[in-house]
Amino acid sequence: MQGGDDQADDAAEGAGGRAMEMMNEDPGALVPELALLGAAVLGLLAGSWLPRHRQWLVAALAGVACVVGIIATAVVYTRPAETVFGSYAIDATTNATRLIVLVATLLAVCASVDAARGQRRETEYWVLLLLGALGSVLMAGATDLLLLFAAFLLASIPLYALVGWSATSTGTEGAMKYYLSGAFAGVTMITGVTLLYAAGRVTAYEPLRENLTAIAAGGRSIPALAAVGLVAVLAGLAFKAGAVPAQFWVPDVSDGAPAPVAGIVTTIPKIGALVATYRLLTQAIPEQTIDWPLLAAILAAASMTLGNLAAFFQTSVQRLLGYSAISQVGYVLMAAAVATRTPQAGPALLLYLAAYAITNLGAFAVAAAVTTPGGPARTLDDYRGLSRRRPALAAALVVCLLGLVGTPPTAVFLGKLTVFTAAIDGGMVWLTVLAVLNTVASLFYYLRWIAPLFAAEHHDQDATEHHSAPRHWASAGAISAAAATLILGIGGGLLTGLLTNTL
Questions:
Q1: Residue 219: left (phi > 0), alpha (psi -120 to 50), or beta?
Q2: How far is CA 127 from CA 130, 258, 455, in A?
Q3: H or E element in which residue 244 lies
Q4: pLDDT tens for residues 301-320?
Q5: Predicted TM-score (pTM) above 0.90
Q6: Which end of the chain is less crowded, N or C, counting CB atoms within 10 A of the terminal residue's CB?
């Protein structure tokens, strides 16, 4: 047993030495992250003295930060991989995640302008959004458990406040449920980090993998402790992704928060959490000591099935989209389940996340743009006759909803096709069959939303759009998202090529 300890210590020391040699402390490699952070800090300071009618400048600053981050990422996209400050990887995976998160954040800004304009806490809205996006990016690039947990907190705490930003009763209730669920998930996750550290004696991914492999080779039972730690860490990441078994907050938050906020919390943190899950499993946990592919497959099956079944008879559109978000996580987790079994898994995961982010935000942007005399359109019946009143918006909604099903030629169709192919190639045929059945079943509840769009409208709906200010920015965001999902679906071969060498 002492020999096993010495072997683990030697492995840790050797890996630590290599990490020190390769460490890069150049902050210039973090331009996208610094752009988000700088805009959040500058926006908070500027918002403290800007008059209320000028606080839209902070929204413009947030948009500029996203554009700067996208350009900076594009410039360094093909550069060799490197590790910054010993715990943050800047590789093709991180760069792809940067692009997805930044584009999603830019779309979220567009969808949110109408709702946030003129509010007394408008500045806080944009600052919280930027900080949440930054946390999502950092989760994806983390190569150390401590940085992963810090990024988890950064992707969580600002969004708790964002959900309650509107100060309505439903928003406050949703924020409280989100916070309590997140507090429990955070405690569970840090407990898992502690157990993994106790098992492997390090928190950096690659040394942890080497130590766990060495200990398992010595015949010791410590991998059982590591298995418990892994489950606890995955529980925290499942909370951020909205996956089973930590999905309970999703429908309540989606239904209670304003539509743009609901779109943000069901999209942006999910991107970072799922990429972080993939990176953690493939780089830190040896498959031969812990059967994590089976665990990921079970979570995928449970998420897609539970989300679909719960969405079947929903009448609230935002609650329906919340359950839809749970089911979509299941499809992405299929790629994680076969991460080490096929080279197609990594590109499939990123492609699906890119497609889902645009499509889901597009659907929520429509929900933000459609209004009734009593306020935002909340139920399926509120969308009756929309194709006659707002034909462009109705068309965008049809594209986004059919896109979430995975109907060609939308981007999600291409994403599902690549994920299903990767799962079959990785030997998970049963999971693919279940995913196909869930995809077919999901068509039912999406059609329940599409059908009223083309039905005859009620007599009291004739003046619906005149009772509230038109939401041009949300409409533009919805139409742009719908166009983007069609463009990516038709020309997705180019995007697939960019992701071929990731993960």
A1: left
A2: 5, 17, 41
A3: none
A4: 999 999 999 999 899 999 99
A5: yes
A6: N
